[in-house]
Design goal:
heterodimer; A: ABC transporter involved in vitamin B12 uptake, BtuC; 71% helix; 0% strand; globular; B: 533 residues; alpha/beta; Rossmann fold; seven-stranded mixed sheet
Chain lengths: 308, 533
């Protein structure tokens, strides 16, 4: 039966990792385009509130998920107008988005606190889902999980295999040079910001529709910040986001299990694990860095104003 | 590569490209004021002018990066609208940028793919890069990331990117400013071949010898207007310079003989690890500069110039005592202010942000470097009147042109700011002056002024060390010249005993740098000190 226990643990790890993956992949695309969006937490929590509210009203999880993504996108649009359109400071604007998102989500979700609804439906393939060990793991997840994995592949393919992805990476590396070549720096950045916001909103909707599933104020509990750290941890590569999200998800689950098992370690120490892992990864990355070039998109966080 | 170029036509009623009555205003500043320019197929056309004459603006209009406020651009007589670089490229206009428009962390092939037509697959592109490279002698590995390439190799990417689009007109902005003489030769061969294929080239440069060699026609801009057109081959470098600045440029007086002053600046085996990702480590740099002489350090950017300057100015401390001596005082581990107090002065390469704080006024900028040596503060309180007086003295002595009595440093043109920064240090009558790229991006008139000031300072007994990429400049002012390549310094030889070719080889690292072996360095130093007695 140990296989089933392992499988169960893995299922919970994946559940904890899914929102991190979705939000991180979105932010990865934003940062690859050269924009630092510190508003992920706010977009995520607004997505959670809006997603839950719309799902309760319509009774459709899908509509809730779409609304969550839409709410994240709307807040990202505001962020994009400020930072990409008006060249406002990205750090300050991002922090403002987080505060705004937390406030707005309280407003949107006020009427829905304490309501319960059924979690997002899980895939159920007769025969396959009931397979011992791997059945639940492979064929019994909800739609968000499959989407998150597809998103890893999609973002990887987009960045490294398409012309638009190349353009986006080039803009994140040097906006002056790419502008001089006639590439649409601000247009690409704005679209990347919208994509990142939609991903953050969707990740939030996963929390309120599938993970818990209910709405509570500030329920994201810092996952947006973990998603940001994860992008750095993954050194801006989608496949490493997958690995990092599992590690962070694993640490979260481990902490719950350790507390349940009454382990001597304080829960706070275990909660700090993902962050310690990030610091360690950053140190290792900078120790083993290449002779030249940079890991991070070179234009990250620098604003761009074309003069015309 | 199938150059389906039109037959070469040097004279004709309709030029390949024309720009007529171009006016471009930025706010109330007019960068181009009714500029006319005609470019014919099969010619290399020079565009000459000082900094701020409007060359870059005109070039950006032709490449679709800027839209003119007034005026039209024509292609074979038809008016065309160049709304963006894509439209310009579609008409066959290509551009080789001065500050390369390359993304450092992308590969060669990726950088080229950015502007190629969509749907071109990677392998085909690499084959075409190889084919064009072979045809023009421009070899490149398409999979190398740009950060690992030299300036010359980077320029090859820009040229190949241009050629892959089979351009009718290639615009080159200061293409030789970062090249070794050898690399420049290769470039000239490619340019002449492109001309012979019937393409038009617009060549922007302030190196007049190159223009006289390559170009049959030149258009000269001054203050945003066309002030003349000529055949550069029929002119001298001096007459061209005079047309550019509107007055006769005085030639600097050549340095006088071998100085007999004492050793004032001595470096012995200065070694420093690379400061960062893109830095260069200094490896056993030894040099001595006597009072009364100017020693030049040649080399291509990125070979340790910035690191050497930092070690001299005190921005980087020497790892061991005795490596840097100013007037016999071990200074390698002293801070910047301590070095200044001991009579040294420094002018860094980057004017805005390193030499001056652009948002601060000129008098505030005087305080930044002279607070300890000009008595500009008393008990920690600034003496504004003294600072203003010092700034005024610099402005008068060095003919700094500016708007208003005490404007922000960032509002001055490059040449005027550089004159101000040089004056700020020179008026302190330093015993040792270290300058990095004294006339980088400075117009001919200001450059002549700055060079003369350096010569005068040396004549008054100071030891002057000039780090420059410009060999013409070093030959004009330096008594001895050494070459910095990959963090090692060749022995300084009298300028009269060396040639551009020899220095060019050393700059490219072709000849073995002699100074790396310690015994030779000692021998060199021994010879130099024997020379003093």
């Amino acid at each position: 039966m140990s296989l089933d226990i392992l499988s169960m643990v893995l299922v919970t790890i994946i559940a904890a990792a899914t929102p991190l993956m979705i939000a991180s992949l979105g932010e990865l695309v934003v940062e690859r385009a050269g924009v630092l969006n510190l508003g992920v937490e706010g977009m995520m929590v607004l997505g959670a509130a809006t997603g839950f509210a719309v799902a309760v009203e319509t009774g459709s999880t899908l509509a809730g998920a779409a609304a969550g993504a839409g709410a994240g996108l709307a807040l990202a649009a505001l962020f994009g107008i400020l930072t990409v359109g008006l060249s406002a400071n990205q750090v300050a604007s991002g922090l403002a988005m987080t505060i705004l998102g937390l406030g707005l989500s309280g407003l949107v979700g006020a009427a829905y606190v304490g309501l319960k609804r059924a979690p997002a439906p899980h895939l159920n393939v007769p025969g396959l889902t009931d397979l011992p060990g791997i059945g639940r793991l492979l064929f019994g997840q909800d739609g968000f999980v499959y989407f998150a994995f597809a998103l890893v592949a999609g973002v990887w393919w987009f960045l490294w295999r398409t012309r638009a992805g190349l353009t986006l990476r080039a803009i994140g590396d040097d906006h002056t040079a790419t502008h001089a070549l006639g590439l649409k720096v601000r247009k690409v950045r704005f679209r990347a910001v919208l994509f990142g916001g939609a991903c953050a909103g969707l990740a939030g909707a996963y929390l309120s529709l599938a993970y818990t599933p209910f709405w509570a104020p500030a329920m994201t509990a810092g996952r947006g910040w973990i998603a940001l750290a994860l992008v750095v941890f993954a050194s801006w590569r989608p496949l490493r986001v997958l690995a990092g999200a599992m590690l962070f998800g694993g640490a979260t689950v481990l902490q719950l299990h350790a507390q349940a098992a009454g382990l001597g370690l304080p829960g706070q120490a275990l909660s700090a694990l993902p962050y310690l892992a990030t610091i360690l990864a950053l140190v290792l990355l900078s120790l083993g860095r290449r002779q030249g070039g940079s890991l991070a998109p070179a234009a990250l966080g620098r604003d761009f104003t074309p003069h015309r | 590569m199938t150059p389906a170029a039109p037959p070469a036509r040097t004279e004709g009623p309709t030029p390949l490209f024309g720009a007529y009555g171009i006016v471009k205003r930025f706010g109330d500043f007019t960068a181009n004021d009714g500029v006319d320019l005609e470019i014919r197929a099969g010619e290399i056309h020079a565009l000459l002018g000082e900094n701020g004459a409007g060359k870059s603006t005109l070039m950006k209009i032709l490449y679709g990066l800027l839209e003119p406020t007034e005026g039209v651009v024509t292609h074979r007589g038809d008016v065309v609208r160049l709304a963006n670089p894509e439209a310009a490229r579609a008409l066959g206009i290509g551009m080789v940028f001065q500050h390369f428009s390359l993304c450092e962390n992308l590969t060669v092939a990726e950088n080229i793919a950015l502007v190629m037509p969509k749907g071109l697959n990677g392998r085909t592109l690499k084959e075409r890069i190889g084919a064009v490279g072979a045809a023009y002698g421009l070899h490149l590995d398409p999979d190398r990331p740009v950060w690992s390439l030299s300036a010359g190799e980077r320029q090859r990417i820009e040229i190949i990117r241009c050629l892959l689009q089979d351009p009718r007109l290639v615009i080159l902005d200061e293409p030789t400013s970062v090249l070794t003489p050898g690399e420049a030769e290769l470039l000239f061969t490619v340019l002449e071949r492109l001309r012979d294929e019937g393409r038009a080239l617009l060549y922007i440069s302030h190196r007049l010898d190159e223009v006289r060699r390559l170009c049959a026609r030149a258009t000269i801009l001054r203050g945003g207007r066309v002030v003349g057109a000529c055949d550069p081959r029929a002119e001298t470098a001096r007459s061209l310079a005079a047309m550019m600045v509107g007055v006769q440029v005085g030639e600097v007086k050549p340095p006088s003989g071998v100085p007999a002053g004492p050793e004032r600046l001595v470096l012995s085996g200065l070694a420093l690890p690379a400061p960062g990702l893109h830095g260069t480590a200094l490896d056993g740099v030894s040099l001595s500069v006597r009072g009364g002489e100017i020693v030049g350090i040649a080399g291509i950017a990125g070979n340790g110039q910035a690191e050497l300057f930092d070690a001299l100015s005190g921005e980087a401390l020497a790892p061991e005592p005795g490596m840097v001596r100013f007037d016999r005082v071990d200074s390698g581990r002293l801070g910047i202010t301590a070095r200044r107090r001991n009579g040294a002065a420094f002018v860094p390469e980057e004017r805005n942000g390193h030499g001056a704080a652009p948002a601060l006024s000129l008098s505030d900028n005087a305080i930044l470097s002279r607070h300890a040596t000009a008595g500009l503060s008393r008990f920690g309180v600034l003496r504004r009147a003294a600072a203003k007086a010092l700034a005024r003295a610099v402005i008068d002595a060095f003919d700094v042109r500016k708007a208003g009595p005490d404007p922000a440093a960032g509002t001055l043109s490059g040449g005027n700011l550089q004159k101000y920064l040089m004056g700020r240090e020179i008026l302190a009558e330093p015993g040792i002056l270290v300058v990095n790229q004294p006339t980088w991006g400075v117009d001919a008139l200001a450059a002549a002024h700055i060079r003369q000031a350096l010569l005068d300072l040396a004549a008054r007994g100071a030891a002057v060390l000039v780090i420059s990429q410009d060999l013409d400049e070093l030959f004009a002012i330096a008594g001895r010249i050494a070459v910095l390549h990959d963090g090692t310094l060749s022995p300084a030889v009298p300028a009269a005993d060396t040639t551009r070719e020899t220095l060019g080889l050393l700059m490219g690292g072709a000849a073995p740098p002699v100074a790396v072996t310690p015994d030779l360095t000692r021998e060199n130093l021994a010879r130099e000190s024997a020379h003093a007695h």
